[in-house]
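quick one before i forget lol
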Amino acid sequence: MTGTERVDLAAALEILGGRAGVEVVRVDSGGALIGALLGAGLLDEVSLLVHPRLPGVRTHRLWHGSAPAAIRFDLIASRAFEDGVVWLRYRPAR
């Protein structure tokens, strides 16, 4: 554990990479953790699976925390599947 009140995400990732030899961390999370990673500049890639469905409720923000609601990303790969699902991979714009 790093930090006393909250997890120090940068330190945690440094420990995972340095001590444990981890090269990739996959985060399947809600907006709070994703927003914290975005706000700290610790997110290298966003992988989205887009399903051909519409949700019933619309919100004004995608992320929680200090990350802005609109962040520019660059598309690095895409793939469409027969069932209509599209896999999109993005990197935060530099």
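fyi The beta strands are 46-50, 73-80, 86-92.
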